[in-house]
Amino acid sequence: MPTYSSAPPQARLTVREQQVEYGLLDKLTQLKYTPRLDIRDRAALERNFRQKFEELNRVHLTDTEFQRLLEKITTPDVFTAARALREMDSFERDDGTPLNYTLVNIKDWCKNSFEVVSQLRINTDNSHQRYDVILLINGVPVVQIELKTLTVSSRRAMQQIVEYKSDPGNGYGKTLLCFIQLFIVSNQTHTWYFANNNARHFSFNADERFLPVYQWASEDNKKITHLGQFADKFLAKCTLGEMISRYMVRVASEQKLLMMRPYQIYAVKAIVDCIHNNCGNGYIWHTTGSGKTLTSFKASTLLKDNPDVEKCLFVVDRKDLDRQTREEFNRFQEGCVEENTNTETLVRRLLSDDYADKVIVTTIQKLGLALDGGSKRNYKARLEPLRGKRMVFIFDECHRSQFGENHQAIKEFFPKAQLFGFTGTPIFDENAASKQFEGEQGRFRTTADLFERQLHAYTITHAIEDKNVLQFRIDYYKPEGKHSPQPGEGLKKEKVIETILAKHDASTAERKFNAVLATQSINEAIEYFDKFKAIQAQRRSDDPDFTPLNIACVFSPPAEGDKDVQQIQEDLPQEKADNQQDPEGKKAALTRIVDDYNALYGTNHRISEFDLYYQDVQKRIKDQQYPNADLPHAQKIDITIVVDMLLTGFDSKYFNTLYVDKRLKYHGLIQAFSRTNRVLNDTKPNGNIHDFRQQQAAVDQAIATFSGEQTDRARQIWLVDPAPKVIEQLQTAAAQLQTFMQSHGLACAPEEVPNLKGDKARSEFINCFKAVQKLKTQLDQYTDLSDEQKTAIAQIVPPDQLQGFKGAYLETASELKRQQDKQGDSAPPEVQQLDFEFVLFASAVIDYDYIMGLIARMTQQSPGKVTMRREELIRLIQSDAKFIDEREDIAEYIRSLPTDQPLSEKEIRAGYEQFKDEKKGRELADMAAKHGLALDTLQAFVDQVLRRRIFDGERLSDLMTPLGLGWRARTQKELALVEELGPLLHRLAQGQKISGLDAYEQ
User: Where are the alpha helices (H) located in 353-402, listed in sequence order?
Assistant: First the structure.
């Protein structure tokens, strides 16, 4: 068995990276991978692939056939390559006969050959990339492992891979590397893995939302991050083959790859093994927000190929969840489930022999009707042929839908059925609410009563620790006065509304996010809607600058025989009961609410088509993304008033605040709270709960019940630190920044930051100040701060100084980011590892429209009423990341404006556009004159680059043709031009990447 301790050092690797690489290669050799030290370039990689392909398919290819095969299978489209890796295909041989082939043994991935390559060099066009470790399955590169010497954040690690893939001419789209399925990044101590994807799903957007980056874990959710242990558990040959073949999901509708998380894989295995061994029922406790739909999809699709299983039914308990789940399933695999428009369709599909009907998504209500012996259509008798068949039922959120007669009916009619439940909040003895009588003994039904045993658990405690969901910050509103209401009792609605209006902007990061107000009954929801309308109208009358919150309200109407509404109300007990009283009054109120909604948003909804209205409300909550040019804030919802709706089964990353004027406990409380804690980015540090019912005891009880194993630490894990502790952390971070500046002989002041010398010092400043900003962002969303605490925060980070440091941060970060982009792996390690997190420095309030309005108001100020001076406005712009590419232009424009001429916002906008055009024209004219180029030709070249977002080297050469230079002189001239033109192009592109430009700038 060879070892690598004496392998020749590589110029690109540090000594530590060499040691990590050699250790990994030794480990992989122990795992029976064949080391291929001879494969160091593209030609050797292709020769090896050809040999493995010919052996697998028992064929000998001519050289021309092999070249045609390479041309056929090599593609820049990751999704197409992923499909080709997993399916049989054919191509025409030289003699005209077809050759059916596979790239790997897709029937038994364990029987492929597994090899490891290190320091592979791929040269294509301008790209000269070297890859640390590549794993080959049957000669096909499927896993790339990049080794790092420093502690690199998971996001920065992924970003570096993205940069490799965006390098012009890179090997990922032009060689066999197009088949890479997984990337692994490790510094030996910390190891992450993530799926490859096309650029659309493999890039960073302005909000810094990232593709999933995972760490492996054991079945009991203990992290396995050391590279050696990770290799043992994840990279063993058959395990890796299984990961790629069974546990990667191709999302057809989005043309992207998903890699399942460890707990999802364990749950799927548990269900499949239970069915394979025919050992009864079971349930999966996976917390809300953990991706249960993907887990259940994978379980059901794996069962699709099990000949012993007749049908697999995925059962939900509401029509809207039926639609949502069906859409999700079809998103993972196009057309894999059809809509069951009615019970007749469900029965037809149950009796069908069509393979497409083997997996069915349905509601519990339709299934119950199908098994109802009293049906006029005789459904139950028609289903008799299935009675003796093996059926699998997977119930979503089984704590809601299965505590009734339907569960027993299924068990009685399908005696060979196996039942599996998914729940984020199981029913235990202490939170059970439905009686089951056995003789004279009464007891409550629990999840275990119905599904026998727990197959796998991934609780909210695990999810918070893994950062898959956020912690909660709970503000218990304590009314003043001697006669405070008892826990569970409500307050005056006017007081609640006043409190919400005072807290909402802070809680939602200045309306970047949105909120739900949960009320006790439909009557209370109506009353809240009316009072919000009246109070905000009065506020607007008293203060013209007050911007009202956009308020929506949604509750189900009286069913009155409407099957859709009846189905929705199965899981809305309060609304169903409320609608029994004064149904006409409820209808009239909801009609009025929908009319107001139509007037506000320009829609045309009616309560007779309630489901369309409900869908529109959900969409507006999900479309809260700010800024969003396609959907201005006037078209979004700030607060949605609800009774039962949206408190279960609804997901939106932009829903961060729950106002609670409703009695909640146990699973209902956890479900409602969990609507707020979907991960977005660092501007959303936690989910915010504002409780107006003094329910701290109920919260503590729910945490204890659903915490899983770590009940002693649950509160600490679930809840954010209290304000005093975060203020203390802010004090420490600010002191560290001060110590750092002083260690470089500088005062802790924004104007001293440019005096920091060297990459190491500037990188350290980035990390020091980012820590301050993160804590300040967190505290900005604390709505229960006392006056003393606000004063303490202002003393630790004075507002003017904080704004100045933000500007200095953005200036420094921009320079280091350009260096990162240009130098790549050759950049100093301290620069390579920086994760700038610009989103922390972008205000939700301050956007382009806001700035144009401020500039207009600045020009309209009378000498005696100056509220904002020019330099203050410039500092505000320079401290916001949204203007990072325009900050100098806007500042220059503001300084150029006349001091005695009031201008409207329209004039300001037109003037700024003219200013930019004139400045660009001057810069291009100077550049053209300096380099001896025709201005119109240079202008046309720049316009094309900006239109296509591609810097075309051939057109650059054409630009130089009239100069009649030799190739050496022309190359020097091109580089000299790009050195000046590059910064202008970056500025004009406003943060959008220009493909191909980096190659010239390097």
Answer: 364-370, 379-382, 398-401
Distance separating alpha carbons of residues 663 and 647, to the nearest angstrom: 13
Pairing of strands 182-186, 114-124: unpaired
Report whether 992 contacts 203 (CB < 8 A): no
pLDDT tens by residue, 751-808: 999 999 999 999 999 999 999 999 999 999 899 899 999 999 999 999 999 999 999 9
- Burial zone of 384 (CB within 10 Å; 0-12 exposed, 13-18 middle, 19+ buried): exposed
Distance between CA atoms of 613 and 616, rounded to whole angstroms? 5
In order of 329, 513, 916, the CA distances from 684 in angstroms are 28, 9, 35
Give the per-residue pLDDT at 623: 74
**Contact call for residues 7 and 24 (beta carbons, < 8 A):** no
Neighbour tally for 508: CB within 10 Å: 26
Instruction: Quote the radius of gyration of the chain (alpha carbons, Å).
Output: 31
DSSP 51-69: HHHHHHHT----HHHHHHH
Interacting residues of 684 by C-beta distance below 8 A, sequence separation 6+:
470, 509, 513, 653, 656
The span from the CA of 255 to the CA of 308, in Å, is: 32
Closest CA to 620 of 634, 607, 610, 608: 634
Collapsing DSSP to helix, strand or coil, 483 comes out as coil
pLDDT of 328 higher than 80: no
Q: Which tokens is 404 given?
A: 């009734």
Helix (H), strand (E) counts: the chain: 39, 26
Q: State the chain's mean pLDDT as an integer.
A: 85
- pLDDT at res. 899: 77
CA–CA separation, 164 vs 160, rounded Å?
A: 6
Structure tokens at 570: 């199965």
The length of the chain in residues reads 1002
Q: Are 559 and 495 in contact (CB under 8 A)?
A: no
Q: Is 626 helix (H, G, I), strand (E, B) or coil?
A: coil
For residue 518, give the H/E element and its range.
strand 514-519
Here the tokens at position 526 are 């109506």
Ramachandran region, residue 378 (left: φ > 0; alpha: ψ -120 to 50; beta: rest): left
Q: CA-to-CA distance for 460 and 468, rounded, in angstroms?
A: 9
What is the rounded distance in angstroms from the CA atom of residue 603 to the CA atom of residue 13? 60
By C-alpha distance, which of 75, 81, 91, 144 is closest to 116? 144
DSSP string spanning 589-616?
Answer: HHHHHHHHHHHHHT----GGGHHHHHHH
Determine the 3-state secondary structure of 954 from DSSP. helix
pLDDT tens, position by position, 456-494: 999 998 998 888 899 999 999 887 766 777 777 778 999
Q: How far is CA 81 from the centre of its chain?
A: 24
| DSSP assigned state of 867 | -
Whole-angstrom distance, CA of residue 15 vs CA of residue 24: 14
DSSP string, 93-112: -TTS-EEEE-SS-SS-GGGS
SS (H, E, C) 291-347: CHHHHHHHHHHHHHCCCCCCEEEEEECCHHHHHHHHHHHHHHCCCCCCCCCCHHHHH
Mean pLDDT of 726-745: 96
Q: Which residue has the tokens 């012009």?
A: 168
Instruction: State the DSSP H helix or E strand holding residue 780, giving kind and residue range, or none if neither.
Output: helix 759-780
Q: What is the dihedral of CA 711, 712, 715, 716, to 10 degrees?
A: -130
Contact 297, 247 (CB under 8 A): no
